[in-house]
Design goal:
196 residues, 10 helices, 3 strands, elongated
Length: 196
């Protein structure tokens, strides 16, 4: 559960623990003890039948609980668990970037890169240029030798995002947007020209 992130649904944990484990009972017990918290659209609850709800989201009630669990794991265990989490989340249809983060943490650069690239292209199509820049930057950070075509796609995303910053009078924080773009540009240029 700690590897899944700050909050998580029950189903990926079920997949990771396997069919033989009564995940619902374990999670309900951890909620009753105050280690995990659960939230629903209608407010918090820890009744066992509600724990199995598809709408339930779980999280460690204190960051120190989650951090303590993660500290007990060896690096090879974390990588294996991140791979399992990525597969479970991908099977559930989780966002590509969420799955990619787990694959990246598992050391599966190729899988992570493909998902980041898909997310970048989807964000461009949705006119979410800043998100696209972020995902292209992550793609380029994971790729050892980015093609000229990929670098040009990234440059297009940067141009679109920069144009959006200049012409959007309703932006909440224009300075933050510019800082974000510059940070993404610097990170990516380092990855592309200096190496990971």
């Amino acid at each position: 559960a700690a590897v899944l992130g700050k909050t998580f649904p029950l189903q990926p944990l079920r997949v990771m623990l396997g069919e033989a484990t009564d995940t619902t009972e374990i999670v309900a017990s951890l909620c009753e003890r105050g280690i995990l918290s659960v939230s629903f659209r209608d407010g918090p609850s820890i009744e066992s039948e509600q724990v199995a709800s598809a709408e339930a989201r779980f999280g460690f009630s204190h960051d120190t609980f989650r951090e303590s669990v993660l500290e007990t794991l060896a690096e090879h265990q974390k990588r294996r668990l991140h791979a399992e989490a990525g597969r479970a989340l991908e099977a559930e249809g989780a966002p590509a970037t969420q799955v990619a983060e787990h694959y990246r943490s598992a050391g599966w650069k190729g899988e992570a890169e493909a998902l980041y690239l898909r997310a970048a292209r989807e964000a461009m199509k949705a006119l979410a240029f800043e998100r696209s820049v972020e995902f292209y930057a992550l793609t380029l950070e994971t790729r050892e030798n980015p093609s000229a075509e990929l670098r040009e796609e990234f440059a297009d995303a940067l141009r679109c995002a920069a144009a959006g910053v200049e012409v959007d009078p309703f932006a909440d924080d224009r300075q933050m947007s510019v800082s974000f773009l510059m940070s993404a540009l610097v990170r990516t240029m380092r990855a592309v020209f200096v190496g990971n």
